[in-house]
Write a structure and sequence with these properties.
globular, FAR, NAD(P)-bd_dom_sf, SDR family oxidoreductase, FAR_NAD-bd
Amino acid sequence: MLFTGFPGFLGTALLPRTLRRAPDAQAVALVQERWLDQAKQTLARIEGAEPAVAGRTRLVVGDITRPGLGLDPAEADELRRGPLEIFHLAAVYDLSVPPGPAWAVNVDGTRHVVDLARGADQLVRLQYVSTCYVSGDYAGLFFEDDLELGQSFSNHYEHTKHEAERIVAKARDAGMPVTVYRPSIVVGDSRTGETQKYDGPYYALQLIARQPGRTAVMPLPADPSRVQFNLVPSDFVVDAIAALAPHPGARGRTVALANPAPPTVLEMCEAFAAHTGKRLRVVPAPTALSKFAVDHLPGVGRLFKLPSSTLDYLTHPTVYDVTATTALLEEVGVRCPPFAEHVGAMVAFHREHPDVGSAAMV
């Protein structure tokens, strides 16, 4: 099997779980040169914790933005010859990413992975991680099988992930065995709160938590009691992919790994305030004005400490239907925890680990 995106959080969590499926399973983890030392440390930690998977993973330097994934031709041929399962997890997960890196990694990289899969003698399945936000700004209910609904996009991340999923969908429709996973906004582990980076809803949590006194002022656009903010804990995403990857019922499917009952923006912020011992006071702030202030008014960006690109998600118009996904997950015993069950762990981890950054692995 081949993993891209190692040693990111998904690859780190999924690698040992996938190897556990069969005692003779072997893995190749494609790693960029600059992440090789970190990958070696991560693999050593995995193998130290789980001796049964030790010695079954090779780290191979490559680059998905290059044809053939930048692999030595002999290495690529070896991958193609045997039964091959591909976990394509690598992507630029950054709402503020400029177009060049976004298209090179998310679109060209996915095309190169699909090309490798197409040339495999025996492709078991391409396990591809997309995002719910291929929906762009579509207003209304977005189903698992929806993709082309005339939507536009708030940023290059959304646009390029949509284009990448189009490449995968075309290969699937031509007969390639594929499962597409669409997580919504991923936050920390539901039990420990652990996360690799603070972005998305963490900006709101940070703004609320750092205000002195018992009242936290939160500028919010539109009517925050009517806008859903769909977030899911990382262990749910990992559990779902690990369980569905070998499941025959997931072959050819697109699964929306989103919260079936997400909080509204107001409920999310009120929960953050309650868990930091504060009372929330909402101040109306139109999105366009807020984005202009963050980007152009001196001191505003430093005060709020968030990229303006995140503000669009406070008025996000899409609601994600997960009916089919929920039924499929019930077959493998995976459940998405309600926000109320994991927000406490999320806030506690943030309080106890203030030095975690917001940068994505690129």
